[in-house]
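During the no-cost extension, the postdoctoral fellow (Dr. R.K.) reprocessed legacy sequence entries with the updated structure-token encoder. One reprocessed record is reproduced below for audit purposes.
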Amino acid sequence: MMKSFYTKGLSQTMARTLNVRANEWQATLAAFMLAFILMASYFVLRPIRDAMASDWSDAEVSMLWNLQFFISAGIVSLYAWVISRVRFKWVVPLVYSCFALSFVIFYTLTFQVNSLIWVEKAFYIWVSAFSLFNLSVFWSFMTDTFSNDQGKRLFALIAMGASAGAIVGPLIPLTLADDIGLHNLMLLAAIGLLLAIPLILYITHQKSTGLQNQHIKADVQPLNRNWWSGVQALFKNPYLMGIAAFILLYVFLGAFIYFQQKNILAAYTRPERAEILAIIDWVVNSLTFIMALFFTSRILKKCGMGITLALLPIFLTAGMIALAFAPMVIILLLIQIFRRVGNYAITRPARELLFTQVTKDERFKSKPVIDVVVYRGGDAVSGSLFAVLSEGIGIGLLLLSLIGAGISSLWAFIAMWLGKQYNNKI
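Re-encoded structure tokens follow.
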């Protein structure tokens, strides 16, 4: 009786506060925990990767950045081939099992190989690819599990799990690295990925029971067996091209802000920079959690997809114009904070909803191409473009900020177009 009372009370509380219905909270909590575990596992690995990079020259790191674009493209192609031949209910557990095994292999190699330089560089590339592929597969799984209406209400809450994982994950190497060593953290991350598998299976079960979404069961609609069909669909479908352009412009603008941040903070000492950036991380994670908890689903419901997607680009357009005429550190830091909070709490959940209106083949084969290959390609191109404009041509902060405002304006236009296309497909 007490259990029934507790369950009923919890369901009613979640329904009122978080906009979660009684039949959805079990799957939603499981998805929240899955996002938490996956992101925490990544943030256990990231300090290991970054600690290795500190021992290499800028030229070596630049080469690895270029290599990771091609490696990421190869991983996406392999994933497309596998998902065309394996029943979907096993694909997501298989992906995370393979990543867990790969980190166990890296751990083993650190004790078996005399010269670790190439193992460490391979690990650096692999973790960088995992960082994007990890979330791409997760959100593909979510869009195939929850209906469009459920996604509008629940994706922001589920995304909070990733934010919580991003807060807790770094504390593990911070507190344990000295005691157990960096290499043993690889095993902890692998264990985390294995713990995610029972949650994946449970969520799959909930899709056809609690959520009652049998109509979007993956195995009903077979995937194209050609591994390249995802790339073909991307170039043939204007809707997918719009999503790719949306992400590409986000990456371009992020690179402009990152390099401007780097240049403005050059006037400070290294400890002062570390303190400023640490404050940014804390504020971003806190605001993201609050925004996702109370506001995101309501913004989507009241404003619609187009305006929701365009909110961040519109704000950044104004911010970049302000930065152009008042190149102050406080303005830049506010832009960076709101860019990251807006992306994590609003733009990313809304963007993932766009994939609820595509075919199964596009969702599972084109989406990783967009999330990983397009994203990494944008990194490479935007970083080189900024270097050419700032150091090659000698363009100053004023003009660079105005260029950033132009990019953000185009981003807002594409956001509104995507919102219109999304509404037409519902």
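Residues 342 and 348 are 8 Å apart (CA to CA). Residues 360-392 form the longest helix (33 residues). The remaining legacy entries will be reprocessed before the final report is submitted.
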